[in-house]
Design a protein that fits this description.
This protein is mainly α and 346 residues long. The protein has a single domain, classed as MFS general substrate transporter like domains (Growth Hormone, Chain: A), CATH 1.20.1250. The protein has 16 helices and no strands. The two termini are 20 Å apart. The model has no long low-confidence stretch (mean pLDDT 88).
């Protein structure tokens, strides 16, 4: 966990030091993509360790809440700080100056979160489930191989269907909103920063709320409920948002909040669901691999939306089409996977 979070901070900060295309040509995007891959690998390590140790440490009745707090609330809080940083930096470096120095400062802020995390992690101990497993039995030496073996491969693949749908929820709502607000609604950077701050407050509410509701009503029921609700709410909200301009700023705030709220609610119980699908020996590997592969699939979706949108006017319909497909995939995964509440064992 400590190695992974340090790597994230260093890789992120290094992106701000890169030369531009005007300076070194094609080498600039190659270097950027290389660092992005390295950053992604370290982020995967953070996910596998922090997500697992969190739910393994708390009492059973709080595991759903912890799933939402870490998986969604933590990400929402991070996005909130990032939005605040963007608002401040874009104000300090307005207009063309952002393209010169502002974007570099944004990457430099990544090191702040890594440093703060290191101070926190120094006080964190191994989870009781892991400690007990380590004392009483030999821990699997090849956890990743075990996850992808014949015994657990069907479990992993079935879980991946649900996680890919949930990951797309995030990337086509909170992840896509900055682009949508700028290209479709014509909102400038300083104004969109404020909208994103408010929308991320929705994430901080939705993720812990629906994570805890999964502890009350079960993971499967909450997945199905959110899938049905999102099938109606998210496409409708996106089409409404497409009709708004900067003159309707209050309505834009509301639409962004609704999209972030329901889009991020979808993955609130995913973390604890993955934890409950694998035993302690391979829990971090199963959770990390399932979460990262699923969200990697979701992360590709904004690129597809852009690719299949010949003009900015086509973006609203395309994002709705891909969003509906993701929600249907999410519902299929919810129906095919078993109820996992209360099944986490060492």
């Amino acid at each position: 966990m400590i190695v992974a979070v340090t790597g994230v901070g260093i890789a992120t900060a290094l992106m701000g030091t890169l030369p531009t295309v005007a300076t070194v040509g094609i080498l600039a995007p190659i270097l950027f993509l290389t660092l992005r891959v390295v950053q992604g690998i370290f982020v995967g390590g953070v996910v596998a360790s922090t997500h697992t140790i969190g739910t393994e440490t708390v009492p059973e009745k709080w595991r759903g809440l912890m799933s939402g707090v870490i998986g969604g609330g933590g990400a929402g809080l991070g996005a909130l700080f990032a939005s605040l940083a963007f608002f401040v930096v874009s104000s300090i470096f307005p207009g063309d100056s952002f393209a010169v120095w502002g974007w570099r400062v944004m990457f430099f802020t990544g090191i702040i979160g890594a440093i703060l995390s290191l101070f926190i992690f120094r006080a964190v101990q191994e989870s009781p489930l892991w400690a007990r497993r380590e004392r009483q039995a030999e821990v699997a030496m090849s956890p990743l191989k075990t996850v992808l073996s014949g015994g657990y491969l069907p479990t992993f693949l079935l879980s991946l269907v649900l996680v890919a749908g949930a990951g797309t929820h995030y990337y086509l709502t909170s992840g896509f909103l900055p682009t949508y607000l700028n290209v479709v609604n014509g909102i400038p950077g300083t104004a969109s920063g404020g909208i994103l701050v408010v929308s991320n407050l929705g994430v901080l509410i939705a993720a812990p709320l629906f994570g805890h509701l999964s502890e009350v009503f079960g993971r499967k029921r909450i997945f199905i409920l959110l899938g049905v609700v999102n099938l109606l709410v998210i496409p409708f909200t996106y089409m409404q948002l497409a009709t708004l301009t900067a003159d309707s700023i209050a309505a834009i705030y509301l639409c962004a909040f609704v999209l972030a709220f329901f889009g991020n609610a979808a993955y609130a119980p995913i973390l604890v669901f993955l934890n409950e699908r694998f035993p302690t020996d391979i829990r971090a590997s199963g959770t990390g691999l399932g979460w990262n592969v699923g969200f990697a699939i979701g992360g590709i979706m904004p690129t597809f939306v852009t690719f299949f949108s010949p003009t900015p006017a086509d973006i609203p319909s395309r994002v709705v089409i891909f969003m509906v497909g993701a929600i249907l995939l999410y519902l299929i995964g919810a129906l095919l996977n078993p109820e996992t509440k209360g099944t986490m064992k060492w």
